[in-house]
Design brief:
By secondary structure, the chain is of the alpha/beta class. The chain is built from 9 helices and 4 strands; from the N terminus they run αααβαβαααβαβα.
Length: 194
């Protein structure tokens, strides 16, 4: 989700080496740089987070006023770090797994990463252990996909998350992901609109 003006600002901040020959952002090169340097990551976040926040706010407004979704799930991996969207949500859900499982999943999802790069990415965020301590709900993601589905079903059957009626007060759920599996929650949230 990099628009032209942000791509221009990224080029100014990080140089031409983060831009591919076709003019698109080279996420791999940029990622290697920002996940090794906290100051560079801060500069990138200052460019990208306003656009990302506006996009999420637009999606929430659409869901509330146009599609009238009774439950809205947001995927905000840096929620605790940025704090900019916390006001939108009533509950925070952390999808949690053991660190080694998280590392293995990250390496499977991004085969271009080596273990050091993957750990740098993980360490650039608040640890899952810390996130779990301040979450409203925790979904265990240490097992199989079937077990995860079961845990998500339990979450959406929790009394606090059940909408009283379709036109009633919206419940905003903030999701901090532990790779990969956000889609399941989105599918479950659509269940309430039927």
């Amino acid at each position: 989700m990099v628009v032209f003006c942000d791509l221009f600002r990224i080029r100014l901040q990080f140089g031409n080496e983060v831009i591919k020959e076709d003019g698109n952002l080279d996420r791999e090169v940029l990622g290697r740089r920002v996940f090794h340097d906290k100051n560079l990551r801060y500069r990138l976040n200052r460019i990208m987070h306003p656009l990302i926040s506006l996009n999420l706010i637009w999606k929430v407004l659409y869901s509330v006023f146009i599609s009238i979704d009774p439950v809205i799930v947001l995927d905000v991996p840096l929620l605790y770090e940025t704090k900019s969207l916390k006001w939108l949500c009533k509950y925070i859900v952390v999808v949690n797994c053991e660190e080694e499982i998280q590392l293995n999943r990250l390496l499977m999802r991004n085969p271009e990463l080596n273990e050091v790069d993957a750990r740098n990415r993980m360490n650039s965020q608040m640890s899952l252990k810390e996130k779990v301590k301040i979450a409203d709900f925790v979904v265990d993601n240490n097992g199989s996909m079937q077990e995860l589905h079961s845990h998500v079903d339990e979450l959406f059957n929790h009394d606090q998350l059940r909408p009283k009626n379709v036109l009633g007060m919206k419940v905003f759920v903030r999701l901090l992901t532990c790779l990969p599996l956000v889609t399941i929650l989105f599918q479950k949230s659509k269940h309430f609109t039927q």
